Amino acid sequence: MDRHLQAQFEADPVLRQAAEWFVELRGESISGERIAQWQQWLSEAVHRQAFERVESFWRMTAGVNARWPTGAELGRDEYAGNEGIAAWRARTRPDVAMNDKRCWLRHVPLMEGTWRWSLAGFFALAASTLAVAVITGLIYWPAISVFLQGGAPISVHTGIGEQRTLTLQDGTIISVGPDTVLTAVLRTHSRTIVLKTGEAYFHVKWDPARPFTVHVARNIVTDLGTTFDVRHVDGGIVVSIAEGVVRVTTPLPLKRSGAKSWPTSPNGRLLAFQLNAGQRLALEPFDATPRISSIDPKWVGGWLQGRLHYLDEPLGSVVVDLDRYSTRRIIVDDPRIARLRVTAVVSVHDIDAWVASLSAVVSGTSGAAGR
Predict the structure, then answer these.
(1) Are the beta carbons of 202 and 221 closer than 8 angstroms?
(2) Which helix or strand (DSSP H or E) is residue 247 part of?
(3) Do 313 and 194 belong together in one domain?
(4) Are 148 and 1 in a shared domain?
(5) Which of 200, 210, 212, 225 could form a disulfide with 206 if both were Cys (CB 3.0 to 4.6 A apart)?
């Protein structure tokens, strides 16, 4: 391993931690909760810089294609790898390459000489890759296996008013709304999305061998062949189904009113809801009772056409959601007003007008210029 890289690894605990995260994220067994923890760790600039360094080290080796030796070539090879190539040649072939770097090409048959160079290049690549592997937690060859399996996280962070479209390798299309933080990890047997905050619209390519799950706080949305939307704003979560079916599991609420009528998972520790097209599940921070409503499937993902739909939602949550689209900061001063229920359709182009009309009716709501 390169001594300079080793010294960096030993001297920089943040780089070591970034490397450990890098390897864990490429594994098959990482959970959505761990991905969320990684996102939290990555929020600090020094952590993000260290992680980007580890990624860049790894990418340096990704495009190199070294040929594996044939059995005959391995049989002719006498280099054991426990000493430098120059030292080995000086000991075994003192007449070669010590004072003339070209002479070994004249004394060794072409194919063998070509292989010696390929072997040296291969070991150089292996040393480079292993250096990264040591930096990334002393994983060695298992890290190479993980690399071949894929699993690198794809992170998206949009700004105010910004929308992006993410097309995954499997054909799944994710539309990412404004002010949203989202991470996608594709593996051989799973597809995991972590929605830290914001909103996303999912058109999922169904694959029963690779479950597609969206982790939102402590809740899990599992696709069963679906087009659906998930919003995670102001501590609340709204899951709306345009097509197909999804399953949502969520921890049992502290307030158990009406719990007897709620479906639970087989272990009895989670609430489990199956939602069909035209259904909407709301989990609000102000109310522990899950709310399932019937909606027009055409409403789902309306924000992609500039229409924001709110159905019996707390005004405070509505305002926070509108804030993701507005260059003007919107504030509700009174907590009591923030709890008022609102049903509305708001155009993203007329947010200021809607807030102004609301302010005229309800005191305590204001729009402040700038951010």
Answers:
(1) no
(2) strand 245-251
(3) no
(4) yes
(5) 225
Q: What is the pLDDT of residues 233-269, one digit of tens each?
A: 998 999 999 999 999 988 766 454 444 466 655 555 6
* Cα gap 159→3, rounded to integer Å: 41
**How far is Cα 56 from Cα 69, in angstroms, rounded to an integer?**
28
Is pLDDT larger for residue 295 or for residue 105?
295
Q: Is residue 25 located within the same domain as residue 146?
A: yes
Backbone angles phi, psi at 236, to 5 degrees: -100, 160
When divided into structural domains, the chain yields a total of 3
| Residue-level pLDDT at 307 | 96
> 213: helix, coil or strand?
strand
132 and 39 together in one domain: yes
pLDDT at 181 over 50: yes
Containing structural domain, residue 269: 154-299
CATH of the domain at 233: 2.60.120.1440
Cα(49)–Cα(225) distance, rounded to whole angstroms?
38
Q: What are phi and psi of 205, to 5 degrees?
A: -80, 110
Are 68 and 138 contained in the same domain?
A: yes
Measured N-to-C along each axis, helices 13-25 and 32-42 cross at an angle, to the nearest 10 degrees, of 150
Residue 303 DSSP label: G
Between residues 104 and 211, the one the model is more confident about: 211
Q: 241 exposed, middle or buried (CB, 10 Å; 0-12, 13-18, 19+)?
A: buried
What is the SS3 string spanning 79-114? Answer: CCCCCCHHHHHHHHCCCCCCCCCCHHHHHCCHHHHH
3-class DSSP assignment, residue 206: coil
As to burial, measured by CB atoms within 10 angstroms (0-12 exposed, 13-18 middle, 19+ buried), residue 11 is exposed
Indicate if 145 and 227 belong to the same structural domain.
Answer: no
Pull the structure tokens for residue 140: 């060695």
Which pLDDT belongs to residue 162?
A: 95
144 and 8 co-located in one domain? yes
Q: Which two tokens stand for residue 130?
A: 């292993």
Which of 123, 152, 181 is a domain's end point?
152
Q: Tell me the β-bridge partners of 237.
A: 232, 283
Q: State whether 1 and 148 are in the same domain.
A: yes
Which of 247, 265, 299 represents a domain boundary (last residue)? 299
Least confident of 25-34, 79-88, 177-186, 199-208: 79-88
